[in-house]
Design a protein that fits this description.
The complex is a heterodimer of chains A (506) and B (489).
Chain A (H helix, E strand, L loop, with lengths): L6 H20 L6 H18 L11 H4 L6 H30 L12 H18 L3 H19 L6 H32 L4 H9 L6 H19 L8 H7 L2 H26 L3 H26 L5 H21 L6 H30 L10 H4 L1 H15 L5 H15 L3 H26 L13 H19 L2 H8 L9 H4 L9
Helix pairs in contact in A: 1-2, 1-5, 2-4, 2-5, 4-5, 4-11, 4-14, 5-6, 5-11, 6-7, 6-11, 7-9, 7-10, 8-11, 9-11, 10-11, 10-13, 11-13, 11-14, 12-13, 12-18, 13-14, 13-17, 13-18, 14-16, 14-17, 14-19, 16-18, 16-19, 17-19
Chain B lengths: L1 H16 L4 H22 L8 E9 L4 E7 L1 H20 L7 H20 L3 H10 L1 H11 L4 H29 L9 H10 L6 H15 L7 H8 L2 H11 L1 H14 L1 H6 L1 H20 L4 H22 L2 H32 L15 H15 L5 H14 L10 H28 L18 H16 L1 H18 L1
Antiparallel strand pairs in B: 1-2
Helix pairs in contact in B: 1-2, 1-4, 2-3, 2-4, 3-4, 3-11, 3-16, 3-20, 3-21, 4-5, 4-6, 4-11, 6-7, 7-9, 7-10, 8-12, 9-12, 10-11, 10-15, 11-16, 14-15, 14-19, 15-16, 15-18, 15-19, 16-17, 16-18, 16-20, 16-21, 17-19, 17-20, 18-20, 20-21
The chains are: A mainly alpha (506), B mainly alpha (489).
């Protein structure tokens, strides 16, 4: 009966990360790919282990329970972080030869070891964040994630683009952190609490004259989170940083940073809905941000001719759909919608980036024209990319479609007509720019007809990701079950077990 | 069992894509599906009517979402159309020079998508299967198309994608408008709910469905993707899309929009009448102005949707049966026309009237069959189109006005009758310009359709003749379905 505690997962990953760091420090000067394999094994083991972990409410450890939650949502996002890290590490192993070229040092092997260790630590930050139910804890874990990304983004020190990306990310990231902390202090000032459950209790009975300062604090927090999830108008750093960072890190950034932002957003908004007045204002602001994000992301993606930049704008666009779901908040369904969408987004985005990494190595570029005729040069890579693009565009029988299906369902149920209308138009725009990639791969003739070889590991990963995209797109029940796992305790997790509210007329 | 109909083309598509002998496998799959369809047709218990061969697997029980299949008379008619046109399209496909595997895989996927949509009894899968055909169409036009294929492919794909998402919003709104505990995507349960009056008759939801389906059907003024796409698409893709896939929207109106929102539909009848006159007159006149054979056929296929809409709008047994039969007959006749125009293009490299003429002399078979298809398309007796158009006109004209004045329906019918004259003008002109008159020296030695390919055309024309001489065979299939529709009103 005693299933392992959720926190054991975090500890495992911490151990893997520390071993990697120390091993790298004391290992001989040789090729460091073995560290990558060790990281893959370690994270893979933790990922497998996560399926034995059951939700736990830590009521027997009140100190821990104050800032750490072991509910189904937390475990889902821990698993999410582990899965993402696993695929990113596989990409990193593929990418290492390119990386080595861009690092000054004594030999070919210098300085590539940490490239496998730091993502593991980022993963740890993401996992802590999934469990964080206290502003202090949220802040600390967010910093662990952000700071490891500072290092990773500018990892290719000889590459001017990578350095530029690093500086941009550092400055804007530091800014957003400032906003976040400042917002937290305002909220603390009004409510006297940092724990989210207690804040909910205070907000429910807050006198109206204190609404404005509280909303001001929340607005600042939203600015901070807006940077993480790539919401307009905090999206300016995205294209340059995505383009400059090493491709595996771009993938990690677009999936990890976004998931982190949304789990925190879900957790942070909930206490404020305890007061209907504050809640309505908050959701209205989020609706506005969602609208702008949808429009900007999709329209700006259309003229792109570099796949990395295209995916950067697509990442903004998908933040828009996710925000649309959050703005159409429905107790009981919002967490499921957002989590399912993110799971699908993880699969399709990582699949696209994986193909890009392999192609990068073979061709040396990531412009759309580099994909010309990929259907003939490497059918498996082209098929992987095709499935990723179809899923991103939202073709049925893919996880991407079902995600959009749920988002639109929630928005219609809450009668957010402006969002629905804009959403319909942006999905149409999405078809255009995602199919541009398909066109390059299948319509256009290759400039160089030589075949591109792929390693068995890459082939397997592509196969697994494609299978997951289709299976989850047709049969999403496993994910819903994960999210609905009850917490074995009397204290229910509000966001997941409360009964769905039914919009009246609808 | 119905699963097989979907699985065979998909498995064949995968096999072909990874290197099985392309045309042979594809044709085998199509013929197998045709045989299976006949098996269903004869195994269907007409006395019991209703949905048969049903199967269901729960997907998300909380949402009332399940993978349910089943067919009734209308579904069978659509399946027969799909299977016939698929066989013909694959049979008649020319030798493909580049990427033969992808070509046949795309054709099979288009066919699988249409089949899946026609046998699904769940709104989610009904929608999803139709979308399955979107990307193969994009690839077919983009890779093997002619003329300005890039523009045509983009235009059609974006148009259809946006139309589909409008449709999705409509379907979701329909789903959400039902009170929470009985929400379901299951079409059979939804029809039961509608019979109990448990579905709110929201007129804007019907409008969303009408626009969504309308874009897919090329209802005026959402039609502009269709002529370009069909003119540029390779012949087999045009046959499948114009003949079968476009009928998905009409099938959706008959299967989903009308039975579930009968009262809401009434409010939009006048709008539909105006739009369908747009299809018949505006597009009809635009068709006369075309200077190429493929564009004439493409425009005419848009124009003929007007008659089907008229039958659907009339909402009585005559009109609806006529509409269903016209879906079938038009699908076959347009497929023959596209097949032959494709063959002409293969031989001459052009379809401009100014450069063609007299082709019946070197190609008597193509000329003769094109003539038959022309007569069918105009609506001359002996072909399914005549029988169904007569039903449509009588059905629509039954809506009498007060006293001696004409009702809007009758006025529309009178205008629509002129459409037959318009069809005659452009179709006969097309026939004359292509197959009669002076022949260009260059075309004198061109070969006729080879005997091996002739069955493809003969099968379609034979089905058209059967529908023309024994329409009651098909009408009997759809009458029970149509009766429930008129009862719902």
């Amino acid at each position: 009966m005693t299933s392992p505690l959720p926190i054991l997962l975090d500890i495992t990953v911490l151990a893997v990360g520390l071993i990697l760091l120390l091993w790298e420090a004391f290992a001989d000067d040789r090729e460091k790919t073995f560290l990558g394999w060790f990281a893959i094994l370690g994270i893979g083991a933790a990922f497998a282990f996560s399926f034995f972990v059951k939700p736990y409410d830590f009521s027997d450890m009140p100190q821990l329970a104050q800032f750490y939650s072991g509910d189904a949502l937390a475990i889902f996002y821990k698993r999410f972080a582990l899965g993402a890290t696993l695929i990113v590490l596989i990409m990193a192993v593929e990418f290492r030869p390119l990386l080595a070229k861009a690092i000054p040092g004594v030999g070919q092997n210098a300085g590539t070891g940490e490239f496998f260790a730091i993502p593991v630590l980022t993963c740890l930050g993401l996992m802590w964040m999934a469990s964080a139910v206290d502003f202090i804890m949220i802040f600390v874990s967010l910093e662990l994630v952000t700071i490891s990304f500072y290092i990773l983004v500018s990892y290719m020190r000889r590459n001017a683009f990578s350095l530029e990306a690093g500086v941009k990310y550092l400055i804007l990231g530091a800014f957003s952190t400032g906003f976040l902390v400042y917002g937290i202090t305002w909220i603390f000032g009004i409510t006297g609490q940092t724990n989210l459950h207690r804040i909910a209790e205070v907000v429910a009975v807050l006198p109206p004259e204190q609404h404005v300062p509280l909303l001001f604090g929340m607005a600042l927090v939203l600015v901070g989170l807006g940077f993480k999830v790539a919401a307009v108008p905090f999206q300016l750093w995205i294209p340059d940083v995505y383009q400059g960072a090493p491709t595996p890190i771009t993938a990690f950034l677009s999936v990890g940073s976004k998931a982190a932002g949304f789990i925190v957003l879900l957790r942070v908004i909930e206490p404020f809905l305890a007061s209907p007045v504050i809640g309505a204002k908050l959701l209205a602001v989020l609706g506005g941000i969602a609208l702008l994000t949808l429009l900007y992301g999709n329209l700006a993606a259309m003229p792109q001719d570099n796949l990395k930049r295209l995916l950067a704008y697509s990442s903004i666009a998908h933040a828009g759909y996710l925000l649309m779901a959050v703005a159409s908040w429905r107790n009981g369904t919002v967490a499921v919608t957002v989590s399912y969408y993110l799971a699908g987004y993880l699969l399709m985005t990582l699949l696209a980036f994986l193909v890009m990494v392999v192609l990068n190595k073979a061709v040396g570029g990531d412009a759309l024209s580099d994909f010309n005729g990929l259907g003939q040069r490497s059918p498996i890579l082209a098929f992987g990319m095709l499935m990723a693009m179809l899923s991103l565009a939202g073709i049925p029988f893919t996880a991407g479609f079902l995600g959009k299906f749920m988002v639109f369902r929630d928005a219609i149920a809450q009668q957010h007509w402006a969002l629905v209308v804009v959403g319909v138009l942006t999905v149409g725009a999405g078809f255009y720019y995602y199919l541009k990639v398909v066109r390059a791969m299948y319509w256009n003739a290759p400039s160089d007809a030589s075949a591109i070889t792929t390693t068995p590991l890459v082939k397997t990963t592509i196969g697994v990701l494609v299978a997951l995209i289709i299976v989850l797109g047709v049969y999403p029940q496993p994910i819903f079950k994960m999210l609905r796992q009850p917490v074995p305790s009397a204290k229910p997790v509000a966001s997941l077990t409360s009964t769905p509210t039914v919009a009246k007329h609808f | 069992m119905l699963n097989l109909l979907i699985a065979i083309p998909i498995v064949a598509a995968i096999a072909v894509a990874v290197g099985a002998p392309a045309k042979k496998s594809a044709l085998a799959a199509a013929v197998a599906n045709l045989a299976l369809t006949f098996w269903f047709l004869f195994g269907y218990d007409h006395a019991a009517s209703g949905f048969q061969f049903r199967s269901s697997a729960p997907i998300v029980p909380d949402w009332g979402l399940s993978y349910s299949l089943g067919v009734d008379g209308l579904g069978l008619l659509m399946l027969l159309l799909t299977a016939l046109v698929t066989v013909a399209a694959i049979w008649i496909a020319p030798k493909v020079e580049k990427r033969e595997g992808l070509y046949y895989a795309s054709l099979l996927l288009i066919s699988a998508g249409a089949t899946g949509a026609f046998v699904s009894l769940d709104l989610f899968f009904f929608y999803a299967f139709h979308e399955l055909a979107l990307i193969p169409t994009f690839l077919m036009i983009g890779i093997w198309g002619s003329g300005d294929r890039a523009t045509a492919a983009w235009k059609a794909t974006i148009y259809l994608a946006v139309g589909s998402i409008v449709l999705l919003v409509g379907l979701l709104a329909l789903y959400l408008s039902i009170a929470a505990p009985s929400r379901t995507f299951d079409i059979v349960q939804l029809q039961a709910l509608a019979a109990q009056g448990a579905i709110p008759q929201l007129s804007w939801v019907y409008l969303l469905l009408l626009i969504g389906f309308g874009v897919l059907i090329s209802l005026f003024p959402f039609h502009s993707w269709a002529p370009d796409a069909y003119a540029c698409a390779p012949a087999p893709a045009a046959m499948l899309h114009a003949g079968v896939l476009k009928k998905f929207g009409l099938y959706g109106l008959l299967r989903v929009a009308l039975p579930l929102l009968p009262e809401a539909a009434q409010g939009w009848t006048s709008l539909l009448l105006v739009l369908l006159v747009g299809n018949i007159l505006f597009i009809g006149l635009a068709t006369i102005a075309q200077k190429e054979l493929d564009r004439t056929i493409a425009y005419s296929s848009v124009m003929h949707m007007g008659y089907i809409f008229l039958g659907i709008a009339s909402l009585n047994i005559l009109g609806l049966s006529g509409a269903a039969l016209l879906i079938f007959s038009h699908g076959l006749s347009v497929a023959v026309l596209f097949a032959i125009s494709g063959k002409v293009r293969e031989r001459t490299g052009t379809l401009e009237y100014a450069r063609l003429g007299g082709l019946a002399k070197p190609m008597p078979f193509l000329g003769f069959t094109f003539g038959l298809a022309t007569f069918a398309s105009i609506g001359l007796p002996g072909f399914g189109n005549f029988a169904s158009e007569i039903l449509v006109f009588f059905g629509a004209f039954r809506h009498a006005g007060e006293g001696l004045s004409f009702s809007p329906f009758q006025i529309t019918t009178i205008i629509a009758l002129w459409g037959v004259v318009i069809s005659a003008v452009y179709m006969l002109r097309a026939y004359r310009a292509t197959f009669l008159g002076e022949i260009n020296e260059r075309w004198k030695a061109l070969p006729d359709l080879s005997c091996a390919l002739r069955p493809a055309v003969i099968v379609l024309l034979a089905a058209l003749l059967v529908a023309g001489f024994r329409p009651q065979m098909f009408v009997n299939l759809v009458t029970p379905v149509v009766k429930t529709l008129t009862a719902a009103k």
